[in-house]
Every structure is written in structure tokens, then in C-alpha cells.
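Following the same procedure, the fold was encoded as C-alpha cells, giving this record:
***
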Amino acid sequence: MSGPGSGVARPSLLGQLLGKTARIEPGEVKIVVTAFLLFFCVLGGYFAVRPVRETVGTILGSDRVSDLYVVTWIVSLAVVPLYGWACTKFRRSAFLPWIYGVVALSLAGVGVALAADETNAVVAQSFYVWVSVINLFIVSVFWSFLLEMFDANQTKRLFGVIAAGGTTGALVGPLLTDLTVTWIGNPGVLFMGAGFFVVAILCQRRLLGVWERIPVDPAAPRAPDRPMGGNPFSGFTLVLKSPYLLGIALFVILLASVNTFLYFEQLRLVSETFTDNEQRTQVFARLDYIVQGLTVLLQLFVTGRVASKLGVVALLTIVPVIMVGGFLSLAAVNTFAVLAVVFVLRRVGEYAFIRPGREMLFSLVDTETKYKAKNLIDVPVYRGGDALSAQVKTGLEAGGMSLVGVALLGAALASAWALNGWWLGRRQATGGAAVNSQLARP
């Protein structure tokens, strides 16, 4: 499918600035700027409330959070067929803005509940699970739609700079939380996050309008904006019959496992180092905007160049290799300072390299796969990896495995992750013929 690229558009100031960081054709400027702003709002809203979720996690404790990972996985399994049903019944121009509307209403509702009783354990646990589901879901939906707009070559040039829009939002969101949480409290932060998603609705509608005006290439027409039809559960069968999609699912499971091991170490060390809840929220917020500040620089100036010159293989293997060294460092020196460095490197690398690389893997598949199978992999498969690795880590520690042993296991998982990323990158580099033939098999 060929993406936007024809016609001449007069670049805005933002378009001119973005054009200095990536090779953006004149006809691509408007859609890149609009996508940049939409992703800014989506991740700005999520990362504004993320520190509150992390604070809730420290209050609940590692054992309870480990159990909530299982609940999160179950909820994500329920969300996928519901989303698949929406894909079969509604036009994308109708249900995509509604997704952000539901998120805005849910955050505002939790904010009201916490304002009434911030110690309510049911509300706190429900909030933790819900945010853990929607953070993957909203990002997956965003990239699914972007994959309809751009062809495989354009994704290499443009996805880095578009991802920088989300990273900029992810920098601004926690920065606002850090500056305001002592004044407005955690409930106020949730209202602020809801406001971001209200603006995201307007940006999504604008992006849909730009998309509809893109001239259609007769040689590679895009899928029409109408209900996809089919089975709401078809994402499962699409993944199971394709070695390529199964490979992506394994990549996501290994990614989630590495992240979960580091996440639980973070909860433990932050709980031991900081006692005040608002102080913990500030610590998590500061980690977030340090990560996003570094990430946006890489996305603007490095990601596109790495993808164009070294290919998707490099995007998918750089971070796993770094994490092997990170876990070995934690095995040697298990302190908050070392963890903070490893944690920052992992998250910067994930947002700057892994996430764009993962999305490029789906540039070869059809529209139904981009929405249904991709969403299945991005949400329940990811959260299933979270749940499994959380239970394994908790069980190993309860069985007497030392922190050094856990770190060495993390290094082994990161090694397997690197090999899997290399295999996927090689398959993507061969083009879509082999992949599409696998997806077409009965």
C-alpha cells in the first residue's frame, strides 16, 4: 500500500522544524505534523497519570501487584474481542475517536472516586489494572491507523519523528505531574490526564480528515473506511497460523519479561529508599521525564537514520544486547543508582528503537492483521508475558533464589530476546512476499 506523499503542502513552523530532523516529502508534512500532535496528547495523558499508578503499586506491594498482573492479563483478553467486535461493526472514523473519549471519562471517574477516598483499595487496584491495559491499547490503536497511511519505506523515514511526538508528550506529562502534584494531589493529576485525551479526540478527527483527502494510488489502493466485518476473534487465528506473527508474539513476551523483572526491582528499591507517597510520585515522574527527554533526541536525530542505514534488525537488537550488560551490572551491584541507570537505558531504547521497529514489522501485513492480530499481540500477549514473568520472579524469590540469580536469569532472557529480534528483522528485510503467503495459508 502506498502512503501519503503526493501533492504540495506549505509547511507550518512545526513542519519545518520536523523537516530538519527527517526526510519528509512536501505532501507528507501535514499528516506527519497531525500524527505528531495526536501522539503528543495520547502519551502526554498517559504519562501524566503513570506516576500515580506507580505510587499505587508501591502502596499495594510487590506480592499484590504480581497478582494484579494476572488480573490485567485477564482484562486485556476480554478487551480484544470487544475491540474486534467494534472493528467489524463500525467505521474506523467513528470508533477511533471514541476510544480516547472512553479513556478520558474513565480517568475522570477514577479522579472523582479518589478525591472522595484516596485510601479506597478497590478503586486503587481497579485503577492500576485499567491503566495497565489502556496504556498498551491506545498506543497499539494509534500505530495500527498510522500503518494504513504509510508504506514500508515511509515507515523507516517517518516513524521515528512521529514517535518523537509521543515522547515529547511523555516528557511534558510527568513534568506537569511533578510540578503540580503537591498542589492538586493525585486525583487532580487524573483530571489533567483526562484533559489530554479530550484534546486527543480533536486531533484524531483532524487526522482522519487529512487521511480522507490523501489522493488514492490506483496501483495500491488503501482499505476503505468501513466496518471490516469478519470474526471478532480472528486475531487469534491470524497469529496462530503465521510463523512471522508468532515470532512477533515471542518478541513481545521476551520484552515484557525483561521489563517486568526490572519493574519489580524498581518497586522494591523505591519502597526501601523513599517513604512519602507524594515523594515517590515525584521520583517516578522525574524518571519518566529524564527518559523522555533523552528519547526525543534519539527519535528526532537517530532512529530514522539507524532504520534507513542499518535496517529493522538494528532497531530490534540494540536494546536487548544492552540489557544483557545491564542485568550483569545488577548482579554485581544491586543498588537504586545502578537500577536507575539500567531502567533509563531500557526505556529510552524501547521508545527510541524497539517501538518503531516493532511497528515496522507490521508494515508488511493487511488491514485486518494490522488491527486485530496486532492488537492481540500488543495487549493480551504483552500482558500475558507480564503476568507469567511476574509470577515466575515472585516464585523464584519465594523459593530462595538470590537477587544475583534473578539478575542472571534476566540476562539470559535478554540474550534470547536479541536472537529473536535478529530473526524478525531479517524476515522483515526480505519483504512482504513470504510473510503474506504465510498469512494467506488456510
